[in-house]
Amino acid sequence: MKRLKVFGSLVKDSLDTITHGSKKxxxxxxxxxxxxxxxxxxxxxxxxxGLSVTGMTDRVSWGLYISNFTFLVGVxxxxxxxxxxxxxxxxxxxxQAVLIGEGLAVAALIMCLAFVxxxxxxxxxxxxxxxxxxxxxxxxSMLTWDVLVLNGYxxxxxxxxxxxxxxxxxxxEAKRSVYIPGAILSVFWAVAIHLVTAFLYxxxxxxxFWNNALLGPRFLASAFAAGPxxxxxxxxxxxxxxxxxxxxxxxxxxxxxxxxxxxxxxxMLISELFKEFYAPTHHSESAYYLFFGLDGKDALLPWIxxxxxxxxxxxxxxxxxxxxxxxxxxFFCCFILFVAIWIxxxxxxxxxxxxxxxxxxxxxxxxxxxxxxxTLGIWALGAFVFTILAKTxxxxxxxxxxxxx
Length: 405
Fold this sequence. Notes:
Formate dehydrogenase/DMSO reductase fold, 14 helices, 70% helix
């Protein structure tokens, strides 16, 4: 009963916290609400008319929704880069940022699930994904593995921070014997969620563009570059607009993680380009379409030729210590690296896998306004959820939220 009473008090105090704030905070939340409502309107049109209102066809059946899903799985997995040094290796420099990183992982996973629902056409078919009720087809289908690892990782990223914050809310220290086993499990689980997603693509024999042994490792490298890059940007915003001060050395350590991961990602990209273009076969047509176009069809050229220079520029600048330690340069590099990897793992990976089709047919894909509206709405949902989680967590960590006996 006592725990239920404390939980009720926490919920009440959290609601009070997230409904009060500065003018900028209310404007931010109002903007996110407006974008979410616009996204819901676009989704209502999709529910009424079906997926025909999107740019997807029977030729290109995965588009903007699955592109964002693939990218956000990596963003969610990146929380492990803060969890492991903080909880397992006891690195106090990461301690300030770890709860923020886990909150970001929760928001990213919620967006992942939302993008899957949007791509399925509507929530009415979700029962197929429920074990024991729908046609789950476990363990043969890689999609079922993806369902399990994503929901399992979401559970871990909710329960571990909640336990720690629940204890801090009562003015007590969290017991390491309770949360350390879960933290260690989440390290391996984070790797699993991205590898399983990569295996999902690699297992489709009719799509040679994805039949690449480097796909899994590169998924991890790009995730551990883009995810921590986003965490750095979020930490920069938090320490500018709140009393929760993140030390410079914390950001610099995360920046080192971003740099090493970006370098590995770039090396793997060069390896993939060598494989595709040095001795090309008919299986290289998807890569040719992506980088140079085929038969006059070149819709993806502006995307990929924007992503590659941004990726290279960010990685080169981050490699130099003086530039990386200059926070203005660091934040700029993190932003363009995040955008570059979003393009590469979205339009640069998902769409080309369908072009040309198994019989050589070239059917290009571009997202419609409805797809873009739903996508922006889901991103706004993620930002809304993260803002609520971060504001509550910061209040508890600063001691402003405490249980009153």
